[in-house]
Amino acid sequence: MNKKISRSRGKKVVKKRAEVKKNPHPKPSDDPVLMDILIRIAGERGYEIAKELMGNEITDEEIANRMGIRVNLVRKVLYSLYENRVVSYHRVRDEHSGWYVYYWRIEPERAREYFDNNKRQLIQKLEDRLDTERSTNFFSCGNGDPKLPFELAAENDFKCPRCGDKLEPYDNSSVITALERQIELLRHHLMES
């Protein structure tokens, strides 16, 4: 049986080669959508760490050694990616020390699922905002202060609560058009992915 020896917490870890699985997924640099997802979730550092996971399962300590960074920083990023279900792990008990060694791998399909779910949530929020914009009469002073719905404008005698200027009806047709375009664009991207 082929065995590979690596270091974990300063002790030797013996693992069977058969336990280390190759990951058949493309590299994030080959997949711009995956690259974008990783950067959005964990930033540039997270993207660089995730690149190390492409192709096989690897320990957090091996990633830290390859990249020349602290292992606790690698773990922090991996935990963030794990919380978003972009990476997964399995653990193997070290026969000599009794410690668990964690092997991490990237899950591109889960990353896309996470991204699509976020798009759906954003679409829902934009649709809610669009409904509000369509169903509410707004008033504004024109000085850049927040617009007010009719009820609040009436309570303030149609005077801006910030600057005291007179409130005039606010034409929100451009806001409605922008929201409609954004929703349509997100739906289109969702259909493509």
Describe this structure in words.
With about 190 residues, this protein is of the alpha+beta class. It has two domains: about 100 residues, Arc Repressor Mutant, subunit A; about 80 residues, no CATH class. It is about 50% helix and about 20% strand. A three-stranded antiparallel β-sheet has the order 3-5-4. Strands 7-6-8 form a three-stranded antiparallel β-sheet.
End-to-end Cα distance, whole Å, is: 43 Å
Low-confidence stretches: 1-26
Could you estimate the helical fraction of the residues in percent? 40-55%
Number of helices: 6
Q: What is the radius of gyration computed over CA atoms, rounded to a whole number of angstroms? A: 26 Å
**What strand line-up does the widest sheet have?**
3-5-4
Largest sheet: 3 strands, antiparallel
Q: Supply the CATH class of the largest domain.
A: Mainly Alpha
The overall strand count is 8
Order of helices and strands: EEHEHHEEHEEHEH
**CATH topology-level fold name of the largest domain:** Arc Repressor Mutant, subunit A
In percent, how much strand structure appears in the residues? 15-25%
Mean pLDDT, to the nearest integer, reads 85
CATH superfamily label of the largest domain: Winged helix-like DNA-binding domain superfamily/Winged helix DNA-binding domain
Shape: elongated
Question: Do you know the CATH architecture of the largest domain?
Answer: Orthogonal Bundle
Number of domains in the coordinates?
Answer: 2
User: Structural class of the secondary structure composition?
Assistant: alpha+beta
